[in-house]
Design goal:
By secondary structure, the protein is an alpha/beta fold. Helices cover 18% and strands 15% of the residues.
Length: 489
């Protein structure tokens, strides 16, 4: 049977010279569903005060498959184990459990009657209330050295404080989880600290994923990403193995982040453009999974307004991007993800759960060049099971700076695709290249109508046929924390 091949060009609207340049030569092709599987949300519908305004039906309609929630926090509901399992069976979405170091009762506390540090039996009993299949990961304590009022998250453990206390707690938590056969297979994410390079905490390698709250202020996504990865890796001992990076918070704010004294703000439009670009840029850098902060308007961030009901344009940007690229659907009877349509012959291997389904598994990759494009133009090639290629292109330059929105200059026209890669296959020729500065109603997110745009081209079955212009059409939405001053959190 012949397999037709299509190329769909997605324009992620522009968002400094600090950006990581596009590698020279041909780029790899990744499975589209692996990109969807990489997106997480640092939020939950199961906390006190959340369900009334944002019920699980609405929360999971966003399309995310991974979310972050406390397992023993002050807002944890008594029926959370039952609710999480019920909605996993319905949607396939799984939580990353964030450990509260004090309420885990592994830290000495007169308030809770805990006589000494280091007993994780209470925490293990809490985890065992959940079906192990529903737990994606366990994250060690959050921002252990945060001293900004009114927060007081400072960890004190076995005679140490802040980052070093977090490392000692991490080692004992990891050992306890791996020693119990019920929890031994659950991946563990490193604890987080803010404004640090972890020098005071090293050495520690008792985790499966490195972590740092990766914020860039109003800069472009990659402007502090590599520095954040390097700082997290500094926690490892000399000669230690570099672990995959999984930032459990990242994103862009709209209102001022008063809690962290950044003095920085954004706009709804800038947030809606920047978040899809952030996801594409992080995936391009090999990030294991990125958890967007947040759902509600926390410290000016979030996909919702302060009323926790009104959806910002960024909600629709994320929802539409997931709906466009998702290649699998949840089977509630079999309790597993299944392909929406039969796989095309050109795929070399099926999607794997290994490394969170992101691995490249294709021969016959999409070959193209972007001649004379600036170093800030980046690409990501994603392939669906039916053989269609989705080429994401974005110009990673600021679209908001010093309180003003910016309109970057247009990127020149290109003819990026090389025909030899597509013999015996139908190729959709592109007549125009994206104009990255266009941020009105023609590209990716329309902040007023809250729709996602993608570009589709006319078919070119005959060699000498004059190519038709690209058609732009909207993709309707599915029915149904913070900054650092210029660098990392």
């Amino acid at each position: 049977m012949k397999t037709s091949r299509h190329i769909i060009l997605l324009c992620l609207a522009a968002t400094t010279a600090l950006a990581t340049p596009q590698p020279a030569g041909d780029t790899l092709t990744f499975c589209a569903d692996g990109f969807v599987d990489f997106i997480g949300l640092a939020a939950t519908p199961f906390e006190k005060g959340t369900r009334e305004k944002m019920p699980p039906e609405t929360f999971f309609d966003l399309g995310v498959r991974y979310y972050r929630t406390g397992v023993c926090g002050p807002a944890t509901m008594d029926d959370q184990p039952e609710e999480i399992e019920k909605w996993w069976r319905k949607t396939g979405a799984r939580p990353m459990f964030l450990v509260d170091p004090v309420r885990s009762r592994a830290i000495k506390s007169d308030w809770l009657g805990v006589p000494q540090d280091g007993d994780f039996s209470h925490f293990l009993n809490l985890i065992k209330k959940y079906d192990p299949r529903v737990i994606a990961t366990i994250e060690a304590p959050n921002e252990v050295n945060n001293k900004f009022p009114p927060q007081d998250l400072n960890v004190k453990y076995k005679g140490a404080t802040d980052e070093r206390a977090g490392a000692l707690y991490q080692q004992d938590l990891y050992a306890a989880l791996k020693a119990d056969p019920v929890t031994a297979d659950i991946p563990v994410v490193m604890y987080s600290a803010i404004f640090t390079d972890y020098t005071l905490a090293r050495p520690c390698d008792a985790f499966d994923y490195m972590n740092m709250h990766s914020y860039q202020g109003t800069g472009v996504p990659s402007s502090s990403l590599r520095r954040n990865i390097a700082h997290a890796a500094r926690l490892l001992p000399d000669g230690g193995v570099i672990k995959p990076f999984m930032p459990t918070e990242c994103g862009y704010n709209v209102e001022e982040d008063i809690a962290n004294h950044t003095g920085l703000t954004g706009t709804l439009r800038a947030q809606a453009y920047n978040i899809p670009m952030l996801l594409a840029e992080y995936f391009r850098h090999g990030i294991a999974r990125a958890y967007l902060f947040a759902l509600h308007n926390a410290d000016g961030y979030g996909l919702l307004e302060s009323d926790s009901v009104t959806k910002r344009p960024s909600w629709y940007a994320v929802q539409s991007l997931i709906a466009l690229l998702a290649d699998q659907e949840w089977d509630p009877e079999a309790l597993r993800w299944v392909a929406k349509e039969p796989r095309a012959r050109i795929l070399a291997a099926p999607t794997s759960e290994l490394t969170f389904s992101r691995e490249l598994a294709y021969d016959n990759a999409l070959l193209f060049t972007l001649e004379n494009a600036p170093a800030t133009v980046h690409t990501l090639t994603l392939k669906k099971d039916n053989g269609d290629d989705y080429l994401l292109i974005w110009n990673e330059v600021p679209n908001y700076e010093r309180g003003k929105e910016i309109s970057p200059p247009a990127v020149p026209r290109q003819r990026p695709f090389r025909r030899p890669a597509f013999r015996r296959q139908r190729l959709h020729q592109m007549r125009r290249v994206l104009r990255a500065r266009r941020t009105s109603q023609r590209h990716f997110v329309n902040a007023r109508r809250c729709k996602t745009w993608h570009i589709c081209a006319a078919s070119q079955p005959a060699r000498h046929r004059q190519p038709r212009p690209l058609a732009l059409r909207p993709l309707a939405p599915r029915a149904s924390h913070r900054h650092a001053h210029t660098a990392a959190r």
